[in-house]
Amino acid sequence: MALSTRTGRRMGRRRVAASIFYWLFLAATLVGVLCLAVLLVDTIIDAIPYLKWHFMTSYASRFASKAGLLAPLVGSLWLIGLTAVLCFPIGVGAAIYLEEYAPKHWLTTVVQVNIANLAGVPSIVYGLLGLTLFVTWFALGRGVLAGALTMTLLVLPVVIITSQEAIRTVPHAFREAAYALGATRWQMVRSVVLPSAMPGVLTGTILALSRAIGEAAPVIAISALVFLRFVPTSPMDRFSVLPIQIYTWVSLPQRDFRGLAAAGIVVLLVVLVSMNSVAIYLRNRFQRRSEG
Fold it and tell me: pLDDT digits over 9-18, tens only?
């Protein structure tokens, strides 16, 4: 009888503690969401008077009434497009090798630890590395290609790690079934593992690219132009990006430039939401295909 009483009291204390932590965590989540909502509403209110077609089709100017973000918008699209083309095959290929082909010994462990450490390196370090490696040593100039290669180094560890996690979620029974049907290792990876892991791979890649499009520090080291009067038309052209242009407008004393910065933030958010929407669509499509 005494044992059941103690057990009931212990369970009661656990329920009370679980309820307390539930409401604490819910409150912490709501505080973060509320702060984000307030910032978004305030930014959108400031941006509405400046979100005009002229703003999207004009170049940067020292006069707020004539300023636009055509050059940094096109530069950001160029940069993120080349970065995606470079980082996706390299990152997914490295993840496939580490998970399906690499022998499990100390060297593989060292590589894994270093990849995880590289994911936490400050972005300005990658900017300085890109400036030294691609701009100076390889003489690629301060163009879009050098910036894309630098951003590829920045997001590659995240792409590799998320792709590995997605590949690990594929049941081992799928691999055994493919081998039982006479498939080679590459046929098994190409026809079984990759289609099943592709939703997670795409999600991780888009999240990594979302980080890249919002980074300003590496691009400042590569190409810090803010008053471009042209749009890049080739990978070797000079460029600017939205974060640098927004920062420049915010730092100017005139009030109108702060409104332009708010409008630039809204445009950047629209680009990010569009990228995430594409990722969700592709993830759902591959998921339905793998389940079917």
Answer: 777 778 888 8
